[in-house]
Amino acid sequence: MAVTSLFIAMFPRELPEAVERRRENRTKGSHGIMSLPDTPADIGKVDSQILFPSQNNLDSTLPKLSEIGTTLKSLIRNKVNLYNNLSSVFYMFSSIGFWTYMPKYMETIFMQTAATASAISGTVSISFQAAGLLLSGALISKYQPSARKLAAWNVCLGFIYVLVKIAFTQLGCNPGNLAHGSLMVHEGGSGDGSWNLTTTCNAACNCRVNKMLPVCYKEEQTLYYSACHAGCSSFANNTGTNCSCLPTAESTVTLGTCSEGCYKIFLMFLAINSVIRFLDSSGRIGNMLVSYRCVDPKEKSLAIGLGIFLISIFAMLPAPIVFGFIFDKSCLVWGTKCGTKGNCWLYDGETLRYAYNLTAAGFTFIGAMFDVLVWYHVNDLDLYDEDKNVEKRRQNNRRQASQ
Questions:
Q1: pLDDT digits (tens, 9 = 90+) for 210-248
Q2: Residues linked to residue 32 through DSSP beta bridges, in sequence order
Q3: What is the greatest pairwise CA distance in the chain?
């Protein structure tokens, strides 16, 4: 931050284009072009006022501490700003929670290793998000679409994102028929959803509940937690033999899940996620432009701070907690460490698929509905000339005052 702040400090208080627009506006009279000064001295005086505005004029656009309360009320009453911020909160809630636990989701649903899942999810998230931001920024700079079109694009992206997340509930690898013992029932007939892996056929094996090393009995497509839980007395070359939980003494189990063709499904999931990540990030530039232009220049710094505050408090903090709770509720087998609950070794894949994706879809849907409100209220907001927006606000204020 210290390094980047040095480069930010090198920027002028006003960009050259803003100075040029002020020159044009000041040379225009109420009925056309104002008369130009006759003498060189007057010309220099006018140019100096245009190119180098007074310190008082610049300071008048800076916020004052005593005006924070009034400015906050103004920002909250600004419908475009309010709806745009709420949309960002719900989008970020969905995105942060979804991508924070993506490696664990890939491990559970698509049977990937922890290292592979982490590397792939990080690469997809960062690379396609960066590409979407860069390309959308370049296209917006070149073609300068209206605020209404950008808002409509965000609405379309939101609903596409919701449909994809709903479709993801049906996309996953089938590990096989689970043979994990019985559901634990506590006193009073209640249960916490966890499983007892000890059954009559493996009771004598004294199996430990360590990290899952699944084995598959391919003849019946049955998945066991480990070779020990299948009752196997010997295990070599990734094959378990003499297994008491299998139909015959000659039956064997092999290391791994019973899923076939899972890698193709995983590639399909990655491809769709990459496209969605790219499209989703393409709408963030328009969202940011709207947030910068829909407020008065004097309120802009506080508006940016308010937006960051809302996202931090209502998205960045609670989203990982909510999605982590979803994973915990989907756990079937908990490990133990020093007599206390440790990591989860086995998840209910179907429950996790539905809860994880539908939660992300739900928060995105709410964000999309706020984007609809932004589209409805944004009207003729100019994203590329702030002076026009300032003048429109002045005219609206005069109109309201006259009424």
A1: 777 888 888 888 888 888 888 898 888 889 998 988 888
A2: 29
A3: 110
Give alpha helix (H) positions in 52-113: 55-59, 68-77, 79-100, 102-110
Number of neighbours of residue 3 by Cβ within 10 angstroms: 6
Reduce the secondary structure of 173-216 to three states and give it as a string.
CCCCEEECCEECCCCCCCCCCCEECCCCCCHHHCCCCCCCCCEE
Q: How far, in Å, CA of 364 to CA of 89, rounded?
A: 10
Q: Which of 186, 201, 165 is nearest to 363 (CA)?
A: 165
Is the separation of the CB atoms in 197 and 209 below 8 Å? Answer: yes
Helix (H, G, I), strand (E, B) or coil at 258: coil
- Per-residue pLDDT at 40: 42
pLDDT tens-digit readout, 297-346:
888 888 999 999 999 999 999 999 999 999 999 988 887 777 677 788 88
Is residue 57 classed exposed, middle or buried when 0-12, 13-18 and 19+ CB atoms within 10 A define those classes? exposed
Query: What is the distance between the alpha carbons of residues 366 and 383, in angstroms, rounded to a whole number?
Result: 25
Weakest-pLDDT range from 20-29, 283-292, 376-385: 20-29
CA 69 to chain centre: 31
Residue in the structure block whose two tokens are 């690469």: 123
Higher pLDDT pick, 63 / 114: 114
Give the separation between CA 367 and CA 355, rounded to whole angstroms.
18
